[in-house]
Amino acid sequence: MRRISILGSTGSVGVSTLNLIEETLTPGVDYVLEALCAGRNAELLAEQALKFRPAIAVIADESQWPLFQDLMRHSGIEIACGIDAVEAAAGRSADWVMAAIVGIAGLKPVWAAAGTGATIALANKESLVCCGRALIERAEAAGGRILPVDSEHNAIFQVFETTQRDRIRRLILTASGGPFRGKTREQLKSVTREQALKHPNWSMGAKITIDSATLANKGLELIEAAYLFDMPAEQIDVLVHPQSVVHSLVEYADGSTLAQMGPADMRVPISYCLGWPDRHAWKAPAFDLRAIGTLTFEAPDEDAFPMLRLAREALTVGGLMPVVFNAANEAMVQAFLAGRIGFLDIPDAVAHAMKKAESPSMALTGNLGHDIDRILLTDADTRAELAGRCGASEAVSAATA
Ligand SMILES: NC(=O)C1=CN([C@@H]2O[C@H](COP(=O)(O)OP(=O)(O)OC[C@H]3O[C@@H](n4cnc5c(N)ncnc54)[C@H](OP(=O)(O)O)[C@@H]3O)[C@@H](O)[C@H]2O)C=CC1
Ligand SMILES: CC(=O)[C@@H](O)[C@H](O)COP(=O)(O)O
Ligand SMILES: [Mn+2]
């Protein structure tokens, strides 16, 4: 019987994970829930906790604590509140942990979970982008491992022949191109928040949906792939594939290219992580290539969508530069979602933050090691640098506020 924790249980990935667990596993026989953690949605967290009965349920946002306490009274379930309590719950012993908190707020909880030896199904790409290989090494040193949930990385993981890694020429990440594919920089000046939130194929949380629209998501995924598969930036390409049917590809030296395909439903990669190393049987949605008909591929437009190029630069500089890229993007996306800035302010500010970060005081190319405080300090410094561009609230790191 597996002990399962879900960090970010009220979000898009968290809800899909619980949905899959409920559909395919028997409570008390196949699994027990150790922890459910959420940010501020006290109602949904309480509903989940009362249904799935974890050992502990934690709400991060202290303003929701009175409501959460009230909803959980007489439940007999241990409850707690605050970001330290989320980190502590993430560090409790478990066999399988879904890491689905969004953004830098997930970093400390993921780091704590990695120290326990659990298998971590990693959706929270921002934590890996900031920690780099140190996160993978930490999980492995504790006897656990990181399994990629992100659909592209999960696809690569499925077709990555580890015994043939010196025969791998390229990893090819597919990108939908987002809702603004084909638009020029001039046309992007006037796009709205509502338009940006309409992803053509995937239903996801707001932050990653905006990241898909700017192609920052693919930039984060480029860095994520480099760390997960230990591949240099030059061997990772991005291919725009508007149908989101081929989730990514691996090209081998013998001329074969292996791809993973499937419906645009996160329960597919989640189920792969839940079943790994076996395949988990469930009532997956129909996948009919005859109905889909045509698959197309094209090069990304890095002039109109510079976030991809900036991410590649951040990866090439290394050290803390991916942290700067991530923090600048996260702060600006929060401001864009709040209606305070325009769409193009996002890449412009990220470019500015990366340029500023080239100052020697940022110590960008040192050995990152396991220095979480240094990452969080860089995150906070980057947000402070952008305070004037995005408004004061985004200048405070979600992980330390
Ligand atoms: N959605 C998708 O299909 C995919 C998502 N990912 C990645 O997975 C992660 C989650 O994405 P998604 O599910 O879309 O995001 P959502 O915005 O839908 O959900 C985010 C989750 O994080 C929780 N949360 C926020 N802050 C905290 C905190 N301090 N402590 C505990 N929980 C917190 C939220 O709680 P609450 O809602 O209660 O505030 C919510 O449960 C992201 O890193 C994203 O890039 C990767 C691939 C695909
Ligand atoms: C489902 C998933 O993994 C997302 O990261 C998705 O890939 C976003 O689509 P884009 O290709 O538009 O960024
Ligand atoms: Mn993805």
From TrEMBL:
Cofactor(s) required for function per UniProt:
Mg(2+); Mn(2+)
| Catalytic activity entry | 2-C-methyl-D-erythritol 4-phosphate + NADP(+) = 1-deoxy-D-xylulose 5-phosphate + NADPH + H(+)
Q: Does the keyword Calcium apply?
A: no
| Residues the record lists as binding 1-deoxy-D-xylulose 5-phosphate | 125, 151-152, 176, 199, 212, 217-218, 221
Which UniProt keywords are listed? Answer: Isoprene biosynthesis, Magnesium, Manganese, Metal-binding, NADP, Oxidoreductase
Q: Name one GO molecular function term.
A: 1-deoxy-D-xylulose-5-phosphate reductoisomerase activity
User: What InterPro entries does this protein map onto?
Assistant: DXP_reductoisomerase, DXP_reductoisomerase_C, DXP_reductoisomerase_N, DXPR_C, DXPR_C_sf, NAD(P)-bd_dom_sf
Q: What is its EC number?
A: 1.1.1.267
Identify the metabolic or biological route this protein is part of. Isoprenoid biosynthesis; isopentenyl diphosphate biosynthesis via DXP pathway; isopentenyl diphosphate from 1-deoxy-D-xylulose 5-phosphate: step 1/6
Gene3D superfamilies, alphabetically? 1.10.1740.10, NAD(P)-binding Rossmann-like Domain (3.40.50.720)
Binding-site residues, NADPH? 10-13, 39-41, 124, 126, 205
Name of this chain's protein? 1-deoxy-D-xylulose 5-phosphate reductoisomerase
Q: Which organism is it from?
A: Asticcacaulis aquaticus
Lineage, uppermost ranks: Bacteria, Pseudomonadati, Pseudomonadota, Alphaproteobacteria, Caulobacterales
